[in-house]
Specification:
This protein is globular. The strands form 3 sheets. A 5-stranded mixed beta sheet has the order 5-4-3-8-9. A two-stranded antiparallel sheet has the order 1-2. The chain has a single domain, classed as Glutaredoxin. It is built from 6 helices and 9 strands; from the N terminus they run ββαβααβαβαββββα. It is an alpha/beta fold and 160 residues long.
């Protein structure tokens, strides 16, 4: 079942690259007591994700903060090393927290997983965004397959 507005983010573990190596981050503690602008991309370094989706959040980070967002987080079914390399190459460091969902457990728990096998990418997460306040989904914007119109930072700013 797909997560809905009003639902709590499920208890799962994401992974974040740190100077000490990949570190687990428990979703319950990460989302507790904060407003998070969360978005998911099908893959780091993929065309739309790199050219439009992630850059929208990097460019609008200050505006999102001014509207009460405590942190911006990106999640993808990639490993933590790929997510860190993408943050470094895109200018996202210090603006967007990059989370690896290497096995796709988070995407599956949300019901927002997808099969990109026909593109040689295997199981991934869909393209979407959400405003999560104290662990509860307040807004959820799921893209149609292949689309990019409701999950970018510009659309989210209008929801805040």
């Amino acid at each position: 079942m797909t997560i809905q507005v009003g639902d709590r983010i499920p208890s799962t573990t994401l992974v974040k690259a740190t100077a000490e190596g990949p570190q687990p981050v428990e979703s319950d503690s990460y989302f507790a007591g904060r407003k998070i602008a969360l978005f998911s991309v099908p893959g780091a370094f993929t065309p739309t994700c790199s050219a439009r989706h992630l850059p929208s959040y990097v460019e609008k980070a200050d505006e999102l903060a001014a509207k009460g967002v405590d942190e911006i987080a990106c999640v993808s079914v990639n490993d933590a090393f790929v997510m860190q390399a993408w943050a470094e190459s895109s200018g996202a460091e210090g603006k967007v927290t990059m989370f690896a969902d290497g096995n796709g457990d988070f995407a599956a728990a949300l019901g927002l997983d997808a099969d990109f096998s026909k593109f040689g990418m295997g199981k991934r997460g869909q393209r979407w965004s959400a405003i999560v306040d104290d662990g509860v989904v307040k807004e959820l914007n799921v893209e149609a397959p292949g689309a990019y119109s409701v999950s970018g930072a510009e659309f989210m700013l209008a929801q805040l």
